[in-house]
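INTERNAL AUDIT FORM
Audit reference: QA-55
Scope: verify that the stored structure record matches its stored sequence.
Auditor: D.O.
Record contents follow.
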Amino acid sequence: MCFTSYFIQQPPEVDESRNYEGSLVIYPDSVMINGDQLMADGRLDSHLIRLKITLKSKEEKQKWFTSAHKYSTLKVIGHFQAIDTNDNQHAFDYQRYLQDKNYMGQFEILKYRQGKGSHLQLILSELRYCCIRQVDQTLSKKASQYVQALVFGYKNQNFQEVQSLYSLSGVLHLFTISGTHVVFFLGLFDFLMRRLHLSFHQRILPLCIGSISAMFFFGISMSVLRATLTYLISYILGRTTINISRLDRFSLVLIFLMIIFPNTLLVLSGQLSLFVSFLLIFIPKKKNKFKQMMWMQYLSLLSAPFLLSVFYQWPIFGGILTYLFTIIFSCCLLPFCLLLFIFTFVPPILLPFNIIFDFIVGMIEYLLQFTIQFNLTIGWIPTWFALLCIIIGILVIQTKYHYLLPIICIICPFLYVQMTHLSTRVTYVNVGQGASCVIQSPLNHEVSIIDTGGRVTFNNELWKKRRTQPNCQYSLVPYLKGEGISKIDSLFISHGDTDHMGDVVSICTQFRVKRIFMTKGAHNNPKIARQIAKIPKRTQIYEVLANQVIGQKIPLQVLYPNRSGKAENKDSMVLYTKINQISLLWTGDLPKEGELEVLRNYPRLKVDIIQVGHHGSRTSTSEAFIREIKPKIAIISVGKKNRYGHPHIETLKTLKKYHVSIRRTDINGMIQYRLSHFHNIYEFDGK
């Protein structure tokens, strides 16, 4: 039945080449405005969609900020947008996310006007929006983030910094997948009814109505549904003579969830929420608080293989912190957040409570900063291997040999990852309109990165500027974590353009970077000087010139420049290496004049794989250069439909003339070469 329902609910395929015109329902409580972009959930012809509007004026933006509930029904003209799959290994796939959530697609609204019509779910959505808006207008930025997240399950762009902190500490699920706030508020509601001396039969109907209402106010998510169903089933069974096990209760909840949302197990939030609940069944309850906290660490160990298959790292003290923060959330943060929301309607007494709350969460965040460093990055393991480790772990934890759990759930995945990294890997990461290459020796004993990529921004009016994550968060960072890399031996910055070094600070703060190499005189470049000032002091910075060799396992030779410069295109660092008889060359954005100088200095230079200069621009990749070095493969790192027209037709003709095989990140995605003595070269791309 569930599988039949799932296939029936699959959204129809859409034609992205034509415009649609019709009525659209928007859920106001899902509206998020970032600069001049509005994103929200809605329904088009009864199908769930993710919609986008590019706001045309500051006044239009203000209207949506203050009166989104007035635009819940629209007459629209728009079209569905093609969503590119993320073609980097280990990266988040937005297209897959929308499919698993049963979205019809992402719909861009070109024109709209207010329409008429409403229904119960829309009314509840508008009411939730008004509450969220009330919090946003009356509380401080810090307090509003917590109240919106914990009371209403609403997390906007401002919540990203807090989310990152709690995620790295291993307790983010208290915000997103645990449903702790649902249990707290339903328990509080039941307590108030008992204080009114209502019997069980008198309480059950209001509690069911309250539970349904709470689901809308907290945001209808997998975790909220699971927590609500679990609470109601336990509440009813606890007051009857029916006695069923925790596993049977979990099974009942799963059946109900699969009926309501047949794709429950396809969505990551559903998987995490149900997985943690399932594992809790096998953790014995101890009266001794210290022993209970230690057993919660076993829960963290049991969940480690699954976390590694999804997030590639494991918070070492995640179980202990979960136990402590469950108490902090239940006894402090949740009640305080509820009081703050109530006090938003009583302004005279709101301010002192707001100040106290900001101080408390400020201290909590400050203390959590010290736990971030205790993250073990192991790398990606396949689902089948994660399930095998978990099943064996569940069997072992119920015996006297439970102390073997770290070996099964941590050491075995670590060994698996190491055994899959026996070859040297050269990976040209798809960072859009930019460049970045990762070189890994066997077992990741030495890791070098050439450029980091970066997002080129253009001057916009203040109201149009969007808050964005660094570009590397969606490409380079997940690749490195998925490969089990936590330490980078050498980071090379070819020159000072943002699309080559814009994310260097982000990489240095998230990974232990031992050394950064730049060309001589690079510190005179204002862009580089600003970035250097933000780099952690643990990272050493060196300036290099031609003929220097860096690295031991995979030595990289600097071929250019010969003199000091300002890290401009003409000063781009040229790097060369040879791995198992395969020679590779990186030229940054070096123009044709620089290429000819390299030829004069190294007349016998021959290359198998070259990353062509300046993303395939006609200012680089001269015919004389290609004719002399005789490359077999040319890598062009370039963004899809970029405004510069890269790669240029002239460059492509030159490469084809000399029978050079072309690989492009905008077409092939991430491009990886695995080099070993067993198979000399193996090519893998993101497609």
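Auditor finding: record pair retrieved intact. The longest strand covers residues 73-81.
Action required: none
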